[in-house]
């Protein structure tokens, strides 16, 4: 009976482990993040990102929405400039399955299964750079890595929003400890 109660939790953990976003951040310890309350997108940096213009728009809209939730405003004379860039790689996983019953190795005699399977996924990394508008120096960088969705526009947009949300949740530094 205990195992029946545990199965939904196990299933939830397995499903959520497949959709997680791995986030890392770095920042300038000398920067005064409380002084930053406005931003603008840094077009020269964004233009260099090697993704489609539609995906750039999706990312920028998501960044705009998340920063607005933090009380920041878009401005013609900003405190921060925001740039993005992306990396993409093919991730290949090989699963080895060697199990069976009884003595011996022959799966036809004992009903076991021997073999392996290979799966591949496209994994993308989004970097969000926050640059001090006055000094033109990088003050904060967030990086989110996750499996990409390419076959369904709605799921792709939701995935982009999720990645951006997870990255921006780490800004400003020290907010998670408070």
Q: Would you give an account of this structure?
A:
The protein has a 6-stranded mixed sheet with strand order 1-6-5-4-2-3. The longest helix is centred in the N-terminal third of the chain and has 17 residues, at 2-18. It has 178 residues and is an alpha/beta fold. The chain has a domain at 21-85 and 122-168: Double Stranded RNA Binding Domain. The chain contains 5 helices and 6 strands, in the order αββααββαββα. Helix 3 packs across helix 5 (153-168). It has helices at residues 2-18, 43-48, 53-69, 107-110, 153-168, and strands at 22-27, 38-41, 73-74, 80-99, 113-132, 138-147. A hairpin with a 5-residue loop joins strand 5 (113-132) and strand 6.
Write the layout of secondary structure elements.
Elements: H1 2-18, E1 22-27, E2 38-41, H2 43-48, H3 53-69, E3 73-74, E4 80-99, H4 107-110, E5 113-132, E6 138-147, H5 153-168
Parallel strand pairs: 2-3, 2-4
Antiparallel strand pairs: 1-6, 4-5, 5-6
Helix pairs in contact: 3-5
Write a short abstract of this structure.
With 178 residues, the chain is an alpha/beta fold. It has helices at residues 2-18, 43-48, 53-69, 107-110, 153-168, and strands spanning 22-27, 38-41, 73-74, 80-99, 113-132, 138-147. It has a domain at 21-85 and 122-168: Double Stranded RNA Binding Domain (2-Layer Sandwich), CATH 3.30.160.
């Amino acid at each position: 009976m205990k195992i029946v109660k545990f199965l939904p939790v196990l299933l939830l953990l397995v499903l959520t482990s497949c959709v997680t976003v791995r986030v890392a951040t770095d920042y300038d310890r000398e920067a005064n993040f409380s002084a930053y309350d406005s931003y603008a997108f840094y077009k020269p940096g964004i233009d260099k990102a090697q993704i489609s213009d539609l995906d750039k728009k999706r990312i920028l809209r998501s960044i705009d929405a998340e920063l607005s939730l933090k009380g920041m405003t878009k401005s013609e004379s900003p405190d921060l400039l925001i740039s993005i860039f992306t990396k993409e790689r093919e991730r290949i996983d090989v699963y080895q399955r060697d199990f069976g019953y009884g003595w011996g190795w022959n799966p036809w005699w004992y009903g076991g299964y021997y073999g392996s399977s290979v799966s591949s996924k496209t994994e993308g990394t989004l970097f969000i750079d926050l640059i001090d508008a006055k000094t033109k120096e990088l003050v904060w960088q967030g990086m989110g890595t996750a499996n990409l969705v390419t076959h369904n526009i709605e799921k792709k947009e939701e995935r982009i929003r999720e990645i951006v949300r997870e990255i921006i949740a780490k800004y400003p530094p020290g907010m998670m400890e408070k």
